[in-house]
Hints:
- The protein has helices spanning 3-15, 17-33, 42-48, 54-61, 87-97, 113-116, 125-140, 157-166, 187-198, 204-214, 226-236, 252-267, 278-281, 284-297, 303-313, 320-327, 344-350, 352-362, 454-462, 479-482, 491-499, 559-564, 583-588, and strands at residues 67-72, 101-107, 147-151, 173-175, 371-372, 375-376, 383-388, 391-396, 420-425, 428-433, 443-451, 470-474, 504-508, 521-526, 543-547, 552-555.
- The chain is of the alpha/beta class.
- It has three domains: 3-33 and 66-182 and 217-396, no CATH class; 185-216, no CATH class; 420-594, Glucose Oxidase, domain 1.
- It has an eight-stranded mixed sheet with strand order 9-10-14-13-12-11-15-16.
- Strand 15 (543-547) and strand 16 (552-555) form a beta hairpin.
- Helix 7 (125-140) packs parallel to helix 8 and helix 11 (226-236) packs across helix 14 (284-297).
Amino acid sequence: MHPVTAEVTERIVERSRDSRADYLERMEAARHAGPGRAKLSCANWAHAFAAESDGDKQRMRDPTAPNVAIVSAYNDMLSAHQPLERFPAIIKRAAHEVGATAQYAGGVPAMCDGVTQGRPGMELSLFSRDVIAMATAVALTHDAFDAALMLGVCDKIVPGLTMGALAFGHLPVIFVPGGPMTSGISNAEKARVRALYAEGKATREELLDSEMKSYHGPGTCTFYGTANSNQMMMEMTGLHLPGAAFVTPNTPLRDALTAAAPKRAVEIRDGGNDYTPMSAVVDEKSIVNALAGLLATGGSTNHTLHLVAMARAAGVRITWEDFDDLSRITPLIARVYPNGSEDVNAFHAAGGMAFVIRQLLDAGLVHEDVATVAGPGLRRYQQEPFLDGGKLVWREGTPVSLDRDILRPVDDPFQPEGGLRLLTGGLGRAVIKTSAVKPAHLVVEAPALVFDDQDDLLAAHKRGELNRDFVAVVRFQGPKANGMPELHSLTPALGVLLDKGFKVALVTDGRMSGASGKVPAAIHVTPEAVDGGPLARVRDGDMIRLDAENGLLEIRVSQEELMSRAPAVARASGFGYGRELFGWMRRAAGPADAGACSLFEAA
C-alpha cells in the first residue's frame, strides 16, 4: 500500500470513528429486527402483494421466501434511463429462477443536466440528489425486502440512490446500470461545431444537427462526465457486478448482467452463506478506492460534492484535503473526452475498468481487502463479463492497454498526478479539475470581471466586450443562493476566448459540468457569496490569481480593504419552474466542502 494512501485512509478512519460506529450500530439493529413483513398484520401484508400473480402470491405467503426490491430512475426522456424500462421484467424472471420474488418498490426522479443547462430548471438539479435519496427511502420503508436493486445511471441519480439505500444498509444492495449509448460523431467534431456556434459562425440548425449525431440513441452520453464517473465509482466501491459499467444497452450481455443481479442479491441476503450488506461494502476503504478511481481516470468534479455526501450517509467523513493529497500521488492513467479525444466505449474496448483496477491494485493505490457484492476482495473487478454459449462468465481482463492514447499503465501515465487540486487563499476554498487543462493555463493572473448571473457573462460575450485577459467571477451560484447550478453553458464562449490567446479563467461558487474541460475553473468556492463569502466583495478590476500548480486562489487586495467593502446583494430568485418548492433545501444546504447537502448537518 502506498504510504500516502494508507495515511489518508487512517485519518479518515479516525475522523469517522464516532459517526461510523453509530451508523453500524443502527444497521445491526435493523438487521436483527428482520424483514418487517414477518411482523406485519395479515391485512398489511396482503396489501403488499395484492396485485401479484398467483404464483408470486403463494411464494410471498412464506415470510422466509426472499423478496427483492427494485428502485428505478426509469423515464423515457433520458436516453440513459430509457433502457431501464425493460429491466423489471428481466429481474422478476431471474428472481423466479432462484425461488424468489422481486417487486418494483418505487421510482425516483431523474432529471437531465444536458437538457437544463443554462435554464432555470438547472437550479433544481443538485437538490434532486437529495430528493432521490428521500424517494429511495420511501420505496424501501415498506420493510418487505431481503435485498434491493438500484436502477440508475446519471449525474445526481446514483449519488441519491446511494445515500437513500445506505439508510437501509443492513440489506444487500446491487446497482444495475443501463450502459452507454453507441458512439456517434467524434467529440472533436462536436466541439468544433459548438465553438463555431459560440462565435456566430454556425446556425442553430447546424448546431442541432451536430448534437443529434452525438446524442443519438438509448444509453448514457458517451463523454466522461458525472454519469460515467458514477459507473466507474460503483465498480471501485464493489456495488456493481464486475464489469457492468460500460456494456451497451439492449444487448445479450447487458441483459445477462441485469438478470444476474437479483440472483446474486438473493445469494448475499441475510440468512445465506454470503451475507454482504451494503453497510459492509461502503466503508472507509471502499470510499478511498472510489476517490482513487476518480483521480486516476480524470473523473467529474461534481464528485467533490457527491462523494462527500455519499460517504457521510455511511458515517464516513472525507474532506477536500483527502482528494488533494491522494491526487498528488495517483497518476492519471486514462484520457477520455473531454480529457482526451475518445469516448467511454473506446475506453472500455481499450481495457476499461478491469485494466484500471488491476493497475491501481498492483501499485498499492487502492485497497484490495474490501467487501463487494461479487465476493471478498477488489481483485474480482479486474475480470470482465462475457457470454460463453449464452452463459454469463467472467474472465481476466487485459493486463496491457490496447490503446495507449486512452489507457496507460501506472509507470507510464499521462500525468504523474490525478486530475483534481484543492485551491485556498483570500477568496476561500475551491477545487479545480486540471486533467484537461493545458500546463500553460494552470496559472492565470488577470483583472476580475464580476457577474451575478451566467446570462450576463454570455451577453457581454455576444456584445464583444470580453476580448481581453480576465478572470470571470460568477457569484451567487452556490447551494444557498440558487441551488448551485452547473455553468457548463459558459464553456464554449470562454473556450473561444482561450483559443484566441487571451488569459481566461473562471472563479465561481457554482458548479461546472462533469465534463469540465480546457478552461481553468476554480469552482465550488466556499464560503459562497450569499453566505458571507469574499466573492460578494470582489469588484471589476481586482487582480485575481488562480494558481493550480501551487493550489492558490488569491485576490491582490488586502483582507482589510476587501472586508471593508459592502457586500453585493444577490438578486431575488427561487420562483418559477418549481424552484419555490425547494426553498427549504436552499436554506438547509451545507457548504460545498461538506457535500452541499440538505439532509445532514454541515458539521
